[in-house]
Known about the structure:
By secondary structure, this protein is of the alpha/beta class. The chain has a single domain (18-148, 189-238), classed as Decaprenyl diphosphate synthase-like (Undecaprenyl pyrophosphate synthetase, 3-Layer(aba) Sandwich). Helix content is 45%, strand content 14%. It is built from eight helices and six strands. Helix 3 packs parallel to helix 4 (81-104) and helix 4 (81-104) packs parallel to helix 5 (120-133). The protein is globular. One 3-methylbut-3-enyl trihydrogen diphosphate binds at residues 27-32, 72, 76, 87, 197, 222.
Amino acid sequence: MGMTESEKELLEKIEPEKIPDHVAIIMDGNGRWALERGLPRHEGHRQGVETVRATVRNSSELGIKILTLFAFSTENWKRPVREVNYLMSLPEKYFKTELPELMRNNVQVRLIGDRDKLPGKVQKAVKEGSEKTKNNSGMILNFALNYGSRAEIIMAVNRLIDQAGCGKISGNVNEKTFSKYLYTAELPDPDLLIRTSGEMRISNFLLWQLAYSELWFTDVYWPDFSKVHLLEAVYDYQARKRRFGKI
Ligand code: IPE
Ligand code: IPE
Ligand code: MG
């Protein structure tokens, strides 16, 4: 596929040695994208999956090492059953058509979130996707499914209490130990968080891990998010001065 002029321009300006290692994305605006076109909301989700395919490819091409996508939150169960059911049909479809390309691109799939409460067919699809790709050594692709950050933190606390109760850990817990009990154990925190659709909030995503991430917002709805937006986000990120509290 040919590159557009603006993609070329951005790619020339981006410094390859300063690509963010870990990019997290709140993929928002599918519903509004559809409604603005007079379509039912699920058409927005359908198109959103196409954006996921392209963004995974573009991110891995760019040299991003970890891509974490917020696909379904613990709060999204509050939506109408029909919409929830449609969303729950997507992982199976995605892996069915996308596994060959994920393998070709050496992508390793993982799930973050409470898998136990997901429908069996979703658990099966994600399990297959992660098992088949587990030896791939390229980009790590985390799907946040039935993910909520507060729930994650509470899960970590309860696991720590259990471990302390049976004497497996003792003494005080520090930040490093605590991080190991989160779904993102062993992964570095996101360098860059992208949220589409113009909302400027975190919506219970990676509250602990985003402590020092650079934030990038765009009004573009997720189904319209394309390579040029990803490149813009990375280019803006490279101009940020990350201080981590220092001067
Ligand atoms: C993001 O789009 C997808 C999910 C949250 C599952 P939305 O469905 O939230 O779309 P809007 O925000 O209502 O437009
Ligand atoms: C955040 O989007 C969750 C996902 C993108 C999966 P929402 O659409 O659920 O967030 P709010 O409700 O606007 O905060
Ligand atoms: Mg939304």
